[in-house]
């Protein structure tokens, strides 16, 4: 299992045992500590009898990498046998393979994993801060098996903009028993790349 920062849950190497499990999303509000629990969801597992070319489940998307945060890029395809994933970056019109050390994330963690061939059976890529030099990069995910292949493109926009909160005025002098007003201002702030 891998929980993505946007709330999606990836279940890797699904087996028939997963069809007996139920999944719920449990949300905790960081400020109020209020919690909410989603209704139960289940996975229906079928065992394919014949080979099937990979078919992308995730769709092409535009993702934002802000400041010094790592970015998790999902790419999931159905296929039999289980597809292998490879990642490429479009540089000057050429597809350049991303090095094996940047491919995949160990399930449930942000630890890098790699395979000698530069492919992974988990469709997740971790882009660490500074990995992309361009402010906009096109990443291609390729899923292939013995029956065929499918690809999708992800546009990654790297931003050095973050948010800051300020209070104005910083010093407020009021008479006892009167009202004092402080204004909370939310605005953009440049972060170091």
UniProtKB/TrEMBL annotation:
InterPro entries: Cell_adhesion_signaling, Ig-like_dom, Ig-like_dom_sf, Ig-like_fold. PROSITE patterns: IG_LIKE. This is Ig-like domain-containing protein. Residues 48-157 form the Ig-like domain. It is a single-pass type I membrane protein. SUPFAM superfamilies: Immunoglobulin. GO terms for cellular component: cell-cell junction; plasma membrane. Keywords: Disulfide bond, Glycoprotein, Immunoglobulin domain, Membrane. It is found in: Membrane. One of its GO terms (molecular function) is cell adhesion molecule binding. One of its GO terms (biological process) is cell-cell adhesion.
């Amino acid at each position: 299992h891998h929980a993505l920062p946007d709330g999606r849950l990836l279940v890797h190497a699904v087996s028939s045992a997963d069809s007996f499990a139920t999944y719920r999303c449990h949300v905790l509000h960081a400020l109020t500590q209020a919690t909410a629990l989603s209704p139960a969801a289940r996975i229906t597992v079928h065992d394919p009898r014949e080979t099937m070319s990979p078919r992308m489940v995730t769709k092409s998307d535009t993702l934002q990498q802000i400041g010094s945060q790592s970015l998790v890029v999902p790419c999931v395809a159905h296929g039999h046998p289980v597809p292998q994933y490879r990642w490429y970056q479009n540089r000057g019109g050429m597809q350049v393979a991303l090095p094996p050390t940047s491919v995949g994330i160990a399930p449930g963690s942000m630890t890098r994993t790699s395979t000698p061939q530069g492919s992974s059976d988990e469709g997740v890529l971790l882009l660490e801060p500074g990995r992309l030099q361009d402010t906009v990069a096109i990443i291609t995910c390729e899923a292939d098996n013995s029956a065929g292949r499918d690809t999708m493109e992800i546009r990654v926009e790297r931003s050095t903009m973050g948010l800051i909160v300020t209070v104005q005025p910083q010093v407020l002098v009021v008479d006892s028993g009167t009202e004092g007003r402080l204004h909370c201002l939310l605005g953009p702030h440049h972060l170091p790349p």
